[in-house]
Amino acid sequence: MHSAEKKHDFEPKVVAFVCTWCTYAGADLAGTSRMQYPPNVRVLKFPCTGRIDPVFILRAFQKGADGVLVSGCHPGDCHYMAGNFHARRRFAAFRVLLGFVGVDLNRLQFSWVSAAEGGKWVEVVTELTERVRAMGPMREFKELEQEEQWSATLTTPELQQAYESI
Amino acid sequence: MSRIGVFVCHCGENISRTVDVERVAGEAAQLPGVAYSCDYKYMCSDPGQNLLKKALAEHNLDGVLVAACSPRMHEKTFRKAAQSAGLNPYLCDMGNIREHCSWVHEDREAATAKASDIVKLMVERVKRGKALAPITVPVTKRALVIGGGIAGIQAALDIADAGKEVILVEREPSIGGHMAQLSETFPTLDCSQCIMTPKMVDVANHPNITLYTYAEIEKVDGYIGNFQVTIRRKARSVVEDKCTGCGVCTSKCPKKKIPNEFDQNLGMRSAIYVPFPQAVPNTPVIDRENCTMFQSGKCGVCAKVCGPQAIDYEQQDTLVVEAVGAVVVATGFKLYSIDRKPEESPIKGYGEFGYGLIPDVIDGLTFERLASASGPTGGKILRPSDGKEPRQVVFIQCVGSRAREKGISYCSKICCMYTAKHTMLYRHKVHDGQAYVFYMDARTPGKGYDEFWRRAVEVEDAVYIRGMVSRLYQRDGKIVVMGSDTLVGVQVEIEADLVVLATAVQAQDGADLLAQKLGISYDKYNFYSEAHAKLKPVECATAGIYLAGACQGPKDIPDTVSQASAAAAKVITLFSKDQLERDPVVAKVNEKYCVGCLQCKKVCPYGAVEEKEIRDRQGNLVKVVANVNAGVCGGCGTCQATCPSKSVELDGYTDEQIMAMIEAL
């Protein structure tokens, strides 16, 4: 947050990974209804929560996010029938893992916000922002950030050769 | 190095009021890869689009970002503009700085910073975008219409008249819906049956319409132009092809004392029955729960008396699969009834009206049946309890509707008008009777509506009392209505013979379950959501699915018919093309990396992933990999997040794009 540091000492950075059909549309509805919420959130749109790789969440924390929100369609309402079920299962496991690593799970929120729930979007975003603000900046992951690539790259000639021979 | 053009829109003042658009454009120009940036008052207008086209050519841009409203609003507009200037449309994206920024934040500094961030993130995405070619798919030129009320009937007839095949599915044994139950309709007081039944017959006789009554939607697969719909035809116990509709079975059935749902349980029907005499099709159905044959195995009278041997006690539900290209949802509404168990209803707290335990407190639809010439009383207004003619009738509006504290905040729209109509119908039948109406506001927008309401008050002498009713209770065979007149500021007590409640219009039972099968969205009251409140009022956000009638929200008959015809027009427009272009957001497999674990196949909701064998020139199997059928892929990307070797990629949402956006946070 480049701007702030006016009202508070700390302006948290919140990243929201949302699906395009429900939560993105719900956030649009909050806009058309002129509801107000903290400007700390940055929204990344996905076709479906099923597309969201846990790696994205880790990377967001590394890149300075103090809170991460993942939000999609209510169970049963998925535009792709079952994408949100896969997401739910994936994140249930991932959450435990993240807790084990030592991340305060209050920084990570999963929710269902439908296209008709502009009010709920405002509630969820406001609540997470204020909670994270009270918790202070997240330092743990930022210190871990290295120049490594998140997916495999063939960094040495041997690796390259081995790969070519497949 | 990319050459991206960034175009920041003021949206009149909608964005520029809270976001410093010039600063956003200025900061965008500093971003690596951005070759051009500007701001303009209305990007979506003709000069705005021309500005974009001109800049594309002059600055040799290879990607475009328009920071303006939601992509749900204008993504298509700008992609089309970019395409006409020679850019691949999928290299044009939008940053949402209106709905997600200027409209929801007041602090100009913070909103501007957020808008700049949004632009920065999206530029990273556009930079890594790929030129994509739309996928063309064939269009199945048959439509499915769900619901056989006036909305479904109108839509089906319009589509069928355009020469396209229609499959009409109705849950009840007959089409007709709520409109067939009405006595007379506002504002002209023409008889509902007289304008409805000819249309029902038209549906039955139309060569392009296949009618499935007593049937429900089981499953919907596919996408626009190519849906596969599984329909469950419930066992009627009567073979439709053999039945001649002679009616002997219904008259001979020994079990005759079953409340008739069509008459709001006022009249009686037999266990084998047609809901009403004008039913289409005129084929009876056996109510298995009440039939002696099904309950004890002894009876079989209907089978004995049936000449054409159409009774089949062994009949089972059957599943029919139909291929269609478009779906019109017209499932209508239900009326809230206070005699439902309060815990099952979103409306709480009508205990003061007796929870339906007072027999002469009825709802509007029951009054329609009483007033209907084909109803259980032959059109005489009689009290359900003792069959006497009521001398004083009290109508109460807004029961459930506009009652935030009771769970429903919306206006049911039709009640003001039908209550005015009821007072007239009552006056026409009971000349010396007196009608009282408790109301909050009289809402009569519509052609001829206010004149109609005035007629009820001024000519037909209905007494309108502005205020609500606090309690109903029985005393000496009458119902005491305790209310307030807020205009005069006094408490009112009326001894009524009959009380009619204008209860809230609600979404049909199971509306949410159907929406889940169709993949369409619905609001918290289970009414279906249109794609845009003003500009796309009949389309769903899910392509190829259209809405008609009260399933979208409370509506009267003229509005319902208009919307049904509009939905039909949309379907016919869709069917005017042989091929359809759909977004190329589909998954592709990198066969080099794929190890053939086929995790993706397990998670794919569409069954789009199949196994593919890779063989060398001698025909020896090298390996098995996953392969995505682009025609079937819906583009959710679940496969990509699941793939352990990261060898599936969803076009338009590649890992590279998303990671770049996260890096830019």
TrEMBL record, chain A:
UniProt-recorded Gene Ontology molecular function terms: iron-sulfur cluster binding; metal ion binding; oxidoreductase activity
Keyword flag Metal-binding: yes
Residue ranges constituting the F420-non-reducing hydrogenase iron-sulfur subunit D domain according to the UniProt record: 14-136
Keywords linked to the UniProt accession: Iron, Iron-sulfur, Metal-binding, Oxidoreductase
Superkingdom as given in the UniProt entry: Bacteria
Protein name per UniProt: Hydrogenase iron-sulfur subunit
Organism, scientific name: Geomesophilobacter sediminis
UniProtKB/TrEMBL annotation, chain B:
Keywords: 4Fe-4S, FAD, Flavoprotein, Iron, Iron-sulfur, Metal-binding, Oxidoreductase
Domain 4Fe-4S ferredoxin-type residues, every copy: 234-263, 282-316, 585-614, 624-653
Cofactor(s) named in the record: FAD
Superkingdom per UniProt: Bacteria
Pfam family, one: FAD_oxidored
Oxidoreductase keyword on record: yes
GO MF annotation: an example: metal ion binding
Gene3D superfamilies (UniProt xref): 3.30.70.20, FAD/NAD(P)-binding domain, NAD(P)-binding Rossmann-like Domain
Record's keyword annotation contains Transit peptide: no
Family: Belongs to the HdrA family.
Name of the protein this chain belongs to: CoB--CoM heterodisulfide reductase iron-sulfur subunit A family protein
Lineage, top ranks: Bacteria, Pseudomonadati, Thermodesulfobacteriota, Desulfuromonadia, Geobacterales
